[in-house]
Amino acid sequence: MGCGGTYVQWDKNWSVTGPSDYLEAKLNWDTGLDWKKTLKKYCAHAFGKGAPFMEKYYLLLVEKQHGAGLEAGSYHSFYLIYDQVFIQDAQALFDSAARAADTEKNKTLIAYSREPVEMLEIYLAYRRAFT
Fold first, then answer.
1. Contacts of 4 (CB under 8 A, 6+ apart)
2. What dihedral do alpha carbons 34, 36, 40, 41 form, nearest 10°?
3. Are the CB atoms for 40 and 54 separated by under 8 Å?
4. I want to staple 43 with a disulfide (CB 3.0 to 4.6 A). Which of 26, 51, 76, 77 is the partner?
5. DSSP for 112-123?
6. How many whole angstroms separate alpha carbon 65 and alpha carbon 33?
7. What pLDDT is attached to residue 81?
8. Model's pTM, two decimal places?
9. Cβ distance 4 to 20 under 8 Å?
10. Which DSSP string do the residues of 69-111 spell out, in sequence order?
11. What is the DSSP letter of 31?
């Protein structure tokens, strides 16, 4: 396609952007990769036996955000995309992943990855309170 290069900005917030950073690096290197297979590989390496539940969480996240058909940049449209049902479904997947994980490292990585959903729940509660 004539692309000479790309520029990426990665921050130290892999609990939020870990999978997308991994996918971006892999797909920039080989654009022919299947992103869902690449996500599966990421989850297997990061979460061990908890991987199937984490993969379901990330696919649910993609479905919700992509399916919303809007993008405000940052978090400004999150209240239009996510709701309490999403949070409950996501928390159930994290709980299942943590139970399935067979190493302390995997359990820790799952716990870190849960943080964005916890932040989302706080943000939605905050937004409800001020509106």
1. none
2. 20
3. no
4. 51
5. HHHHHHHHHHHH
6. 22
7. 92
8. 0.89
9. no
10. T---STTTTHHHH--HHHHHHHHHHHHHHHHH--SHHHHHHHH
11. T
